[in-house]
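**User:** Here is a favour to ask of a fellow structure person. Please take any protein you like and set down a full record of it. No explanation is needed for now; the record alone will do.

**Assistant:**
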Amino acid sequence: MSANAVRGIETSVAPVDMKFEIVVIPVSDVDRAKAFYAKLGWRLDADYDNGKDFRILQFTPPGSGCSVIFGKNVTSAAPGSAQGLYLIVSDLQAARKDLLDRGVQISEVFHNEGIYAGTDETYLFGSVRVSGPDPEHRSYRSFASFKDPDGNGWLFQEITTRLPGRIDSAATAFASANDLADAMRRASVAHGEHEKRIGDADANWPEWYARYMVAEQAGAELPK
């Protein structure tokens, strides 16, 4: 026991970084699953086979810090039992079109009724599915769903503005160049409205863009 603990003095310890990196997907046919996740456009990071009774594959979605693994003798979970797997996108329609262009079956865009969404998604949001995107285009409210050949269930969820406290408001983080480009486009549209309000061209637009993008990511009040 430390001297400080004996004296009853509280000491603070910085939390250890814990980076969530892997989700295990249970599948029945490894090669079929490999073909499906490659068809999604995900990066194949590993395909290891010991030549006997073990095989493991790892795929990573574009811009993701978390990967999925599946294979032979990787998990005892029933194939298709992984549900409520969320893929966060900044442009839901574009993400959905990309899968359709790749020949992947995906639901129509839908939004949640209250806090619930999706008749086929009973694990987090699950009872009422309303056709079309959220009428107010709010973050966290619009979805599209698809399944792999075993029935493991995935959801696209559109998020353009994070809830307060979800990221450090002093820094802006983007998962990919596409997400950054989308954020810049939204800032451009908002800046156009800003210039209409001030009745002049804004020479300080880079600073305005930066304030807008940081505020949007942090869920803070957006500049006018």
